[in-house]
Design goal:
By secondary structure, this protein is of the alpha/beta class. The protein has 3 domains: 320 residues, ABC transporter transmembrane region fold (Up-down Bundle); 38 residues, no CATH class; 234 residues, P-loop containing nucleotide triphosphate hydrolases (Rossmann fold). 58% of the residues lie in helices and 13% in strands. The strands form 4 sheets. The chain has a 6-stranded mixed β-sheet, with helices on both faces. Strands 2-1-3-4 form a 4-stranded antiparallel β-sheet. Helix 18 packs across helix 19. The longest helix is centred in the middle third of the chain and has 53 residues. The chain is elongated, with a radius of gyration of 36 Å. It starts with 26 loop residues before the first helix and ends in a 6-residue tail after the last helix. 36% of the residues are buried.
């Protein structure tokens, strides 16, 4: 495949990082969007909310029961040998029942939240994948596979933790803190004022540590995405790595990215881990001060023992949810930053399609007029609806014309300039020239992977911008130098060219591509499972399957981009025998560095620096003794 100059950041993971945001920009908007995915779970969420209220209330009520337990039973029993413990036991059982109710409530909330979180993430992943499939090829060219994979893995995982655990814990912490504060204020306003002073100190510490922890967590997520992108590229390119002895360099590059991840992770978890001990020790200090002052108030008769006992327990219970909430809050912010990156992909501008002309099966009636057919006939027509809602059919002949075409990938440097070329129906057109001359770009424009900056492309006299992209691409088949096979059987991989093809049609297509012989010698023939992008097949065999895939599509226009470059001379001869039948009556665009394969082309287009410098048949161009002559005789290298 020729390497036209188009932007790419392969080998530089993260250059166009999807996760470039340092923190969630709009927490309220992001949360609102996340919860929009939970509309069908409103009843469950209501039950969860009330279950959390019961759990928080049970903890507060259970602690408050210490006051009557101490004042009404324990204190009166002091110094007495003969006591009735029935009331005391009843009180203990009631306290146990309250705590048991809280346990049941939180188990119910947690179990229901699992269903809510998994269902919500299912819909988010579906939307993310659907959006990714609609993105234009330009987007995929400018982002690494690892970056996109990170949206499905790291960011979705962080979001799962937030929805399944973080939300419940934050609600519980908030309700617990508010409830405890109200009860503490009722029990002792003086001690509560003291606690508020300590609370302000704790909040400042949480704010100081949390800010730094949050920043490091965001850096960690970004570093992880970049590392994943690099790992993905190195794993895919292991053959290249080994043949060029790049192992040491790749390890050094990996170590650099891994070190960035280590530093950010170390910073994140250092601040996150020191928060709990600091808050714990501050709570001990608060507990000790409260106990000392509370004891003095008991001595002076301002408080009873039951009140100070319950209050001290609230003191411990008050700081614990605050500490937990601070840690959870950092994780929630990190998850929200990931959610924004996910939604950024979902919100990316999809590939636009303003076409109104469709491709239909066609046939000729008795009067010789072309009409639409409900079944596959091997004939096609372009269908357009007139203003009076009448259908007008134009036979698909395969006439392709570029008129004054200009194009650039970056909007600044033209890759193609003033391109005027035509391919008549059934002609084989060869595109040759140096690497980067613009050969592959022409085919990318014909398939509308990219659109022209200036000029137009006519397909059977119709501007291709008026043709729906799916229908346009159904009329074409491409065989690329870099063959991609999917996990599945050989039969399924060939059928990828036309999903409605039957087994017999698939086998016929394989025979036309001369792939049937080697397929028949595979362990399970057409049912042999291909894995790892066809790693168990030779490069030539993989290319034969790609050609068979194009054959089963049976389109009127073929694009062969270095289709035989990875095949030996003998195999190439077998392919050409099958391809001659396949190309018969079809318009074919061939890109080839091996000029011996294009000698029988109706016209050879020579490109240089994005411009057509020669056009003619093989013999005509040799007679000119210009650039094609130099390329063919080896006087000028294609690269």
């Amino acid at each position: 495949m020729s390497n036209d100059k188009k932007p790419t950041n392969m080998g530089r993971p993260g250059m166009h990082a999807l996760g470039k945001k340092e923190k969630p920009r709009d927490i309220k908007k992001t949360l609102k969007r996340i919860f929009s995915y939970t509309n069908e779970y409103k009843f469950r969420l209501t039950v969860i909310f009330f279950a959390v209220i019961v759990y928080a209330s049970a903890g507060v009520a259970g602690t408050y029961m210490l006051k009557p337990l101490i004042n009404n039973y324990i204190v009166p029993f002091i110094g007495k040998s003969d006591t009735d413990l029935s009331g005391f036991i009843t009180m203990l059982l009631l306290m146990a029942a309250v705590y048991l109710l809280g346990v049941i409530a939180i188990l119910t909330a947690t179990r229901l939240m699992v269903g809510v979180s998994t269902g919500t993430l299912l819909k988010i992943r579906l939307d993310l994948f659907a959006a990714m499939e609609k993105l234009p090829l330009k987007y995929h060219d400018n982002h690494t596979q690892g970056e996109l994979m990170s949206r499905f893995t790291n960011d979705v995982d962080a979001l799962r933790d937030m929805i399944s655990q973080g939300i419940i814990q934050l609600i519980n912490a908030g309700l617990t803190v508010i409830s405890i504060f109200i009860v503490m204020l009722v029990l002792s306003p003086v001690l509560t004022a003291l606690m508020l002073v300590m609370l302000l100190i704790m909040i400042q510490i949480i704010k100081f540590i949390g800010k730094r922890s949050r920043n490091y967590f965001v850096k960690q997520q970004n570093a992880l995405g970049k590392l994943n992108g690099y790992i993905e590229e190195i794993i895919e390119g292991q053959k290249v790595v080994k043949v060029f002895c790049y192992e040491q360099n790749s390890k050094e590059s990996f170590n650099e990215r891994n070190e960035v991840l280590r530093k950010s992770a170390a910073g994140a978890y250092t601040f996150a881990n020191i928060l709990m001990p600091i808050m714990g020790n501050l709570s001990y200090i608060n507990f000790a001060i409260t106990a000392a002052i509370g004891g003095m108030l008991v001595v002076f008769g301002r408080l009873d023992i039951g009140t100070i006992g319950a209050y001290l327990q609230y003191t411990r219970s008050f700081s614990q949810p605050l500490t937990q909430a601070s840690g959870i809050f950092n994780a929630v912010l990190s998850a929200l930053a990931g959610a924004e990156r996910i939604f950024a992909v979902i919100d990316e501008e999809p590939e636009t399609d303003d076409g109104d002309i469709t491709l239909v099966n066609a046939e000729f009636d008795e009067a010789g007029q072309i009409t639409e057919s409900s079944c596959r006939t091997g004939l096609w027509a372009w269908k357009q609806i007139k203003e009076n809602n009448e259908a007008f059919l134009t036979p698909l002949r395969g006439d392709v014309r570029f008129i004054d075409a200009y194009f650039s990938y970056d909007g600044e440097h033209n890759v193609l300039k003033n391109i005027d070329l035509y391919a008549k129906p059934g002609q084989k057109i060869a595109l040759v020239g140096s690497t980067g001359a613009g050969k592959t770009t022409i085919t990318n424009l014909l398939t509308r992977f990219y659109d022209l900056d200036q000029g137009k492309i006519l397909y059977d006299g119709i501007n291709i911008k008026r043709i729906k992209k799916d229908d346009l691409r159904h009329s074409l088949a491409m065989v690329l130098q870099d063959t991609h096979l999917f996990t599945g059987t050989v039969m399924e991989n060939i059928r990828y060219g036309r999903l409605s093809a039957g087994d017999d049609e698939v086998i016929t297509a394989a025979r036309r591509a001369n792939a049937d012989f080697f397929i028949s010698h595979l362990p399970q023939g057409y049912q042999t499972v291909i894995t790892a992008d066809g790693a168990n097949l030779s490069q030539g065999q993989r290319q034969l399957l790609a050609i068979a895939r194009a054959a089963v599509a049976d389109p009127p226009v073929l694009i062969l981009d270095e289709a035989t470059s990875s095949i030996d001379t003998r195999t190439e001869a077998l392919i050409e025998q099958g391809m001659n039948d396949l190309m018969l009556g079809r318009t074919v665009f061939v890109i080839a560095h091996r000029l011996s394969t294009v000698r029988n082309a109706a016209a050879i287009i020579v490109l240089e620096n994005g411009q057509i410098i020669e056009r003619g048949s093989h013999n005509e161009l040799l007679a000119l003794q210009a650039r094609y002559y130099q390329l063919y005789t080896g006087m000028f290298e294609l690269t």
